[in-house]
């Protein structure tokens, strides 16, 4: 082997050592940078090169610095990391939503010290982990910019900031100097046992409980019937026949979250069990509950007593039947009575009346149908409402007479919602020491001398006893944001006890539970349930005869009556400050940001309202003046099917004071003055006169304007129980026909009926799917608010809703089904509609930049960063569930100063409220806040599926069914929404699909977009047989023709 | 003695007046070389004003978002895409005239092709504005280009008809521009040679790309014209076909229609010719070019209008028939309720479309009407209104009430910025057109000289004289065997 040597230069031959060294250096010469330090730029070895380098760098740096305007937001890390807190990981604390007697046991999701989402507490058996729209929205109240931020005292017309020390001293002195005048605590119903204990221990404190919408008629009637001044637990799940006389028990009556769970149990059917409970509703207007009823009968509100009396007479003949003119109503009573009799012991009758006599009759009916001990449970009386109207009336009289020296107000707002507010306001002026503990500067607080704002419940310690023996605890999830103090602490201090309320609470419960450890345990669970104590009370019929003659003798109402009702969103008015709730479409009218008069079509014709195309398609609605006595209110009218022809229904809770902030003020009108005191209780109905004052039309922002599903069976499947039993296979037959028509070869509709490759090949082990039971959904909207909170869905304000720019990812489509005229309502169908996550998604193939695409788990996903906003996907979505950011609703846009539109699309104040630094704390950090110009839509809560997978992976196990719940599913008290892995045959969603083959269908299945959301057909429990034109070719089932359409057809 | 020309006996001359080559050059170059008239300035300034209005409108939309327009959750496209399709349609006549008529050797095209091509280019420029500025995030518009990137395998979606639009329209624009410009070269050289001012010499000199008029240049020019004509011909058909795919490939009832490609192409030619009429009726008058753009041209184009208008009419009726025949309730609702029903919210727009596009052009079956300039001008405007409504009907009346009745909504009147954007494109179009008519010959100078020899009035008169001569006399007079 020859020893050849290859060399490159003489240096390598002659001086190999030095050469090697140099060859290894990347830069053969000294780097010029090093010289600069010593000699300066110009003397450096290669100043020209460096000059270019510096020039290049500085130009690039200047460009970068000048062009990237994104403001720097500093995040300050913990100096000492608290134990148990890992940034980015959510903590859940059991607490309780309490508002004016409404109690919902919840879990607060806390991210990095901020509560951002409310979820139902599964440990609470009686709510089954359900929530309400208001409970869901309550987390936003915490960050409300209009909360009272510090204690104030009123000096002249001004509110001066003060300190608790000073106020304790001042008020303490003032209390001492009352000279025998009484001290009164005026509050909404108090459900907290410890607070009641504090109140009881306050020397000489008189406690008056006042409910904005009162149940004192029921409380007193129960007392008269021998049950004591209490309200029982209702067991809707056990009832085969449910009769409601104007009780909106799914929307606003007592505790809808609790009733919804039981009610939906009786409404859910599957192949093996085709029986369902029967729900009759007698009412004056179309309520949320009435919308779910199988059969409805309408009457004027003043006739509630007559109906109850007639029903009792038909049941047991113990009273004389009053005469009823309306044949339909009369026949209905007879039918209901027969059905009740047939279901003795499995029936329940409830009434929303606040009249003691009516409720006494109802108690007699419930006794006659064997409800006590079966569907009505006196072993667990409920504490939701305790106010007695007479107490309040007496208090106002006493205040007027100057007998009240000091008035403490908590949770009550009579200056706004008392039926005779001016009287209360005048009386309040005569009270020397008026103190409000309310969280906001509401109409009553405005008038008080002192305001010591209490904590929001998410900042508080506390307890709530919704039902006897069941206590749900409140624990703080965040340090108080403002200088607020629990009102209990104030009461303790002023009663001479210097303990703080949290200490007091701990001692109180440690005493009851036996130890502090036990207290800590129940705080973790959130709820403690003592065994029920068997009811010792028995029904006493003594008051019935008197009540019957009182009802029979009650004065008849006038021609037209007005009834006041509560919306599921705003309630008595407490929801009015909450943008999520204001923007939540009403279940029935689909209107946001307003109250209005709901009238029948007959009334509209009488008033000369033109129900033409313009009425339906444009938001301008005619305005009339409604007068009850001297109280006049101008309101727009909305024609709603299923109204009593002579009844006008108006929601309370609107027309709030200016100091409550921009969200509540100037929205709607206050109709509480229409209520009146009859000597015992408050009536929420009255005779009304309607006059056309020629007022300009008013725009109502509805998110849905067309009310009929136009008999489009591909969209809505609804039937009656009798029809369903007769032809159970209508839907499977239709689906089979699709297979026969389009997939002859393989009988696989998914694979064959398409040009594209089988979408299933794209999926791994997981394919997310959802089922929505339209029989269980009653339209309350808790899911919509939950979706807002979970997914940072922006609020757009009335002006933008009017332009159909609402952003709801999940909406509840509501269709009316009626007979001859819209007033003859047969039923209402609620269809929660969200992205269907189609396997062959039509949105996906039209996006030019592939911003919307399909995950391997079957989720149709949005890459917001990639979206350029062509809106083609939204046009091509047959379900129209895609939402576009028309303006910078979130303040997240990279363009600055672009929310000051003037000429077009001026944004409402609420947008700025929602974009406030404080309010933005409610945002979920796991979900991108979308900037304007991008499309968004339901993601199947992809952040939750990802989190659950990660958790399972960390725990080294497979993903289990139930690990992921979407926000809407979690919020639903009726369990109408089920979500899970449809490839797992054992998952809940697969089982629901398997068990409901006869009702399960996909919306617009014939399009072959292959949706992943199964809908279960709506079944109304009636005997009517609907002949399907697709099958028998017989007479076509009459779907509702809405007012405008009907008119339209008549014209051509 | 028909052997001497292949022009039909009955066809009147294409260039009227006793023109010779010099006269033609003088006539056509005069408007370019003379100072602009007062009328030109008025028109130009109005156009620039509209353009500024458009720029302001678009600026507002870019700053504040698409909410500056009255679109909504149900109607994602409205005036924006209506205007886009409308302008693209208008941009069809030019290329059709230059390319297809060139291939079919239609001599009459030379009188109108230059202006029509220019119109095409400006119309496509206007059309292109809409898909660009209708984007919610226009600053990311470059995402539609399939460029290599560092974002992993992130590519455009080749399934999307919108992406096909990007390619179709940019190709069409490029080819049309090249075609137009290559045709301009000899004329620019003429202007350069005639120029007296230094800047004109410079300007036209650079623009003429050193054209000398050598045989080699002419030979290459002719070859290039043929190649570009060959390329353009399929494009005329493909562009609007692809635009129609935006709708035809969707699932929306009223959009999902297989008839769309031919129907859109016919409609495009229809509206394009109407726009050519609008412009030429004015141009020939203002620039005194009646002898070049003759009543013959107007009449021929009116014939095309009545033909394409009738095709469009048949397409409308076919759609209605198919909706009925399909037995699909969603289709039927879209056609019979959303459109035919005059009492539905947008029923009126359907009937405007029907009236303007199908009924009114039938008047052109009469020769007298075809040659009536005032009527032609009026009809050309009417047709373009009708064609605008056709696109509005297709886009808006389909989506505003589609599958789910709960999602139905109405589309209100457009906002000032939507109108402004549309007006702005008129501003752009006419600003360009005014500049074009000032700086470039509006009639293809070189090309019209080609036909002058066989179709000019001068030539025809001389030929008639010759043709009337007896054969012997003719041979004697014009024979070339001087020796015999």
In short:
Chain A contains 35 helices and 44 strands. Chain A is of the alpha/beta class. Chain A starts with 9 loop residues before the first helix and ends with a helix.
Core attributes:
heterodimer, A: 1052 residues, alpha/beta, Dimethylsulfoxide Reductase, domain 2, Barwin-like endoglucanases, 7-stranded mixed sheet, 35 helices, globular, disordered C terminus, B: 484 residues, mainly alpha, disordered N terminus
Walk me through this protein's architecture.
The complex is a heterodimer of chains A (1052) and B (484). Chain A has 1052 residues and is of the alpha/beta class. Among the domains of chain A are: 10-66, no CATH class; 216-382, 3-Layer(aba) Sandwich (Dimethylsulfoxide Reductase, domain 2), CATH 3.40.228; 556-702, Beta Barrel (Barwin-like endoglucanases). Helices cover 30% and strands 19% of the residues of chain A. Chain A contains 35 helices and 44 strands. In chain A, the strands form 14 sheets. Chain A has a seven-stranded mixed β-sheet, sandwiched between helices. Chain A has a seven-stranded mixed β-sheet with strand order 29-20-26-22-25-24-30. In chain A, strand 9, helix 9 (256-267) and strand 10 form a beta-alpha-beta unit. The longest helix of chain A has 21 residues, at 47-67. Chain A is globular, with a radius of gyration of 33 Å. The termini of chain A are far apart. The two termini of chain B are 23 Å apart. Chain B is mainly α and 484 residues long. The longest helix of chain B has 34 residues, at 161-194. The radius of gyration of chain B is 25 Å and the shape is globular. In chain B, helix 9 packs antiparallel against helix 10 (295-326). Chain B has a domain at 13-139 and 158-250 and 260-301 and 414-459. Classes of the chains: A alpha/beta (1052), B mainly alpha (484). Chains A and B meet through strand 35, helix 29, helix 30 and strand 39 of A and helix 2, helix 6 and helix 11 of B.
């Amino acid at each position: 082997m020859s020893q050849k040597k290859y060399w490159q230069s003489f240096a390598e031959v002659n001086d190999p050592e030095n050469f090697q060294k140099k060859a290894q250096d990347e830069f053969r010469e000294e780097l010029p940078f090093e010289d600069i330090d010593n000699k300066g730029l110009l003397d450096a070895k290669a100043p020209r090169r460096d000059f270019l380098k510096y020039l290049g760098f500085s130009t690039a740096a200047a460009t970068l610095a000048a062009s990237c305007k994104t403001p720097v937001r500093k995040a300050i890390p913990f100096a000492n990391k608290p134990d148990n807190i890992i940034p980015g990981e959510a903590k859940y604390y059991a607490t309780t939503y309490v508002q004016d007697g409404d109690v919902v046991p919840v879990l607060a999701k806390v991210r990095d010290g901020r509560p951002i989402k409310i979820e139902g507490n599964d440990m609470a058996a009686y709510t089954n982990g359900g929530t309400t729209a208001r409970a869901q929205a309550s987390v936003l109240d915490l960050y409300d910019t209009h909360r009272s931020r510090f204690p104030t005292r009123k000096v002249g017309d001004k509110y001066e900031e003060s300190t608790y020390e000073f106020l304790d001293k001042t008020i303490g002195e003032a209390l001492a100097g009352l000279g025998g005048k009484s001290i009164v605590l005026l509050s909404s119903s108090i459900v907290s046992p410890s607070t009641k204990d504090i109140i009881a221990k306050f020397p000489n404190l008189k406690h008056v409980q006042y409910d904005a919408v009162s149940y004192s008629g029921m409380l007193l009637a129960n007392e008269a019937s021998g049950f004591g001044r209490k309200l029982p637990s209702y067991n809707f799940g056990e009832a085969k026949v449910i009769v409601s006389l104007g009780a909106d028990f799914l929307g606003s009556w007592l505790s809808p979250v609790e009733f919804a769970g039981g009610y939906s149990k009786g409404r859910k059917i599957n192949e093996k069990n085709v029986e369902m409970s029967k729900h009759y509703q007698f009412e004056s207007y179309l309520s949320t509950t009435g919308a779910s009823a199988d059969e409805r009968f309408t009457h004027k509100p003043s006739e509630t007593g007559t109906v109850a009396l007639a029903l009792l007479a038909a049941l047991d003949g113990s009273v004389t039947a009053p005469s009823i003119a309306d044949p339909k109503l009369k026949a209905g009573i007879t039918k209901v009575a027969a059905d009740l009799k047939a279901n003795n012991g499995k029936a329940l009758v409830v009434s929303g009346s606040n009249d003691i006599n009516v409720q006494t009759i109802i108690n007699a009916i419930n006794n006659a149908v064997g409800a006590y001990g079966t569907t009505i449970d006196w072993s667990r009386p409920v504490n939701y409402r305790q106010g007695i109207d007479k107490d309040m009336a007496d208090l106002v009289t006493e205040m007027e007479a100057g007998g009240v020296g000091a008035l403490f107000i908590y949770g009550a707002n009579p200056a706004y919602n008392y039926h005779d507010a001016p009287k209360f306001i005048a009386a309040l002026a005569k009270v020397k020491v008026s103190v409000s503990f309310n969280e906001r500067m509401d109409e009553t607080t405005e008038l008080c001398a002192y305001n010591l704002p209490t904590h929001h419940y998410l900042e508080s310690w506390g307890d709530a006893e919704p039902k006897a023996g069941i206590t749900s605890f409140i624990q703080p999830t965040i340090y108080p944001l403002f200088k607020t103090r629990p009102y209990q602490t104030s009461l303790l201090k002023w009663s001479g006890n210097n303990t703080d309320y949290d200490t007091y609470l701990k001692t109180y419960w440690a005493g009851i539970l036996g130890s502090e450890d036990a207290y800590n345990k129940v705080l973790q669970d959130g709820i403690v349930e003592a065994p029920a104590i068997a009811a010792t009370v028995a029904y006493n019929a003594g008051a019935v005869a008197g009540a019957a003659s009182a009802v029979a003798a009650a004065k008849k109402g006038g021609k037209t009556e007005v009834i006041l009702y509560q919306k599921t969103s705003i309630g008595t008015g407490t929801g009015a400050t909450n943008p999520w709730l204001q923007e939540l479409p009403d279940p029935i009218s689909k209107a946001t940001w307003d109250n209005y008069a709901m009238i029948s079509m007959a009334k509209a014709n009488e008033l000369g309202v033109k129900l033409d195309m313009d009425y339906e398609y444009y938001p301008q609605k005619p305005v009339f003046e409604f007068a009850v006595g001297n109280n006049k209110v101008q309101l727009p009218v909305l024609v709603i099917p299923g109204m009593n022809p002579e009844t006008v229904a108006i929601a309370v809770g609107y027309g709030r004071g200016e100091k409550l902030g921009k969200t509540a003020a100037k929205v709607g009108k206050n109709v509480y003055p229409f209520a009146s005191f009859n000597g015992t209780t408050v009536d929420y109905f009255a005779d009304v006169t309607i006059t056309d004052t020629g007022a300009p039309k008013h725009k109502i922002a509805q998110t849905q304007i067309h009310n009929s599903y136009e008999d489009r069976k591909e969209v809505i499947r609804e039937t009656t129980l009798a029809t369903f039993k007769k032809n159970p296979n209508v839907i499977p037959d239709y689906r089979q026909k699709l297979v026969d028509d389009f997939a002859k070869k393989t009988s696989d509709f998914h694979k064959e009926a398409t040009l594209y490759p089988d979408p299933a090949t794209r999926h791994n082990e997981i394919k997310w799917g959802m089922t929505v039971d339209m029989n269980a959904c009653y339209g309350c909207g808790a899911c919509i608010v939950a979706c807002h909170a979970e997914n940072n869905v922006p609020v757009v304000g009335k002006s933008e809703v009017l332009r159909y720019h609402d952003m709801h990812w999940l909406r509840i489509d509501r269709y009316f089904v009626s007979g001859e005229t819209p007033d003859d309502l047969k039923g209402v169908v609620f269809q929660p509609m969200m992205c269907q996550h189609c396997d062959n998604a039509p949105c996906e193939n039209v996006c030019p930049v592939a911003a919307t695409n399909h995950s391997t788990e079957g989720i149709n996903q949005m890459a917001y960063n990639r979206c350029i906003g062509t809106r083609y996907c939204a046009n091509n979505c047959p379900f129209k569930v895609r939402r576009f950011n028309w303006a910078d609703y979130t303040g997240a846009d990279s363009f600055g100063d672009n929310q000051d539109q003037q000429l077009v699309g001026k944004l409402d104040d609420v947008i700025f409220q929602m974009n406030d630094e404080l309010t933005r704390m409610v945002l979920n950090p796991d979900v991108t806040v979308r900037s304007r110009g991008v499309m968004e839509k339901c993601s199947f809560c992809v952040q939750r599926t990802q989190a659950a997978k990660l958790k399972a992976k960390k725990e080294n196990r497979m993903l289990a069914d139930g690990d992921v719940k979407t926000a809407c599913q979690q919020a639903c008290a009726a369990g109408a929404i089920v979500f899970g892995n449809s490839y797992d045959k054992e998952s809940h969603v697969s089982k629901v699909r398997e068990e409901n083959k006869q009702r399960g269908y996909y919306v617009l299945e014939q399009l072959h977009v292959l949706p992943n959301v199964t809908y279960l057909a709506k079944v109304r429990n009636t005997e009517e047989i609907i002949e399907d034109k697709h099958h028998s070719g017989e007479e076509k089932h009459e779907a509702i023709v809405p007012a405008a359409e009907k008119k339209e057809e008549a014209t051509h | 003695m028909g052997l001497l020309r292949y022009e039909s006996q009955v066809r009147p001359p294409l260039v009227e007046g006793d023109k010779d080559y010099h006269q033609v050059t003088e006539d056509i170059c005069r408007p370019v070389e003379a100072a602009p008239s007062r009328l030109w300035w008025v028109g130009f300034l109005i156009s620039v004003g509209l353009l500024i209005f458009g720029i302001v409108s678009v600026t507002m939309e870019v700053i504040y978002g698409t909410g500056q327009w009255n679109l909504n959750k149900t109607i994602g496209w409205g005036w924006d895409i209506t205007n886009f399709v409308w302008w693209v349609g208008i941009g069809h006549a030019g290329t059709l005239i230059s390319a297809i008529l060139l291939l079919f050797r239609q001599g009459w095209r030379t009188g109108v092709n230059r202006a029509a091509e220019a119109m095409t280019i400006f119309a496509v420029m206007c059309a292109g504005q809409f898909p660009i500025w209708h984007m919610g995030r226009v600053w990311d518009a470059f995402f539609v280009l399939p460029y290599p990137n560092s974002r992993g395998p992130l590519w455009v979606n080749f399934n999307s008809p919108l992406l096909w639009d990007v390619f179709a329209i940019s190709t069409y624009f490029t080819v049309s521009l090249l075609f137009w410009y290559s045709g301009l070269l000899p004329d620019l050289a003429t202007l350069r040679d005639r120029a007296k001012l230094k800047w004109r010499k410079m300007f036209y000199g650079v623009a003429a790309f050193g054209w000398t008029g050598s045989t080699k240049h002419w030979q290459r020019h002719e070859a290039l014209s043929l190649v570009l004509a060959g390329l353009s011909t399929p494009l005329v058909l493909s562009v609007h076909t692809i635009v129609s795919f935006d709708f035809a490939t969707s699932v929306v009832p009223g959009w999902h229609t297989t008839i769309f490609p031919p129907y859109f192409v016919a409609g495009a030619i229809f509206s394009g010719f109407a726009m050519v009429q609008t412009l030429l009726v004015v141009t020939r008058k203002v620039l005194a070019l009646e002898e070049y753009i003759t009543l013959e041209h107007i009449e021929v184009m009116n014939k095309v209008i009545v033909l394409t208008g009738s095709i469009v009419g048949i397409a409308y009726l076919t759609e209605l028939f198919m909706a009925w025949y399909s037995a699909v309730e969603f289709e039927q609702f879209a056609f019979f309720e959303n459109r035919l029903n005059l009492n539905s919210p947008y029923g009126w727009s359907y009937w405007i479309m029907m009236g303007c596009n199908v009924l009114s052009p039938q008047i052109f079956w009469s020769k007298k009407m075809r040659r009536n300039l005032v009527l032609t001008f009026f009809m050309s405007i009417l047709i373009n209104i009708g064609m605008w409504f056709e696109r509005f009907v297709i886009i808006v009346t389909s989506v505003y009430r589609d599958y789910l009745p709960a999602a139905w909504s109405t589309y209100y009147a457009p906002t000032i910025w939507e109108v402004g954007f549309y007006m702005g494109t008129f501003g752009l179009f006419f600003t360009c057109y005014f500049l074009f008519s000032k700086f470039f010959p509006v009639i293809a100078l070189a090309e019209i000289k080609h036909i002058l020899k066989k179709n000019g009035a001068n030539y025809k008169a001389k030929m008639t004289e010759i043709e009337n001569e007896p054969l012997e006399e003719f041979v004697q007079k014009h024979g070339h065997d001087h020796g015999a």
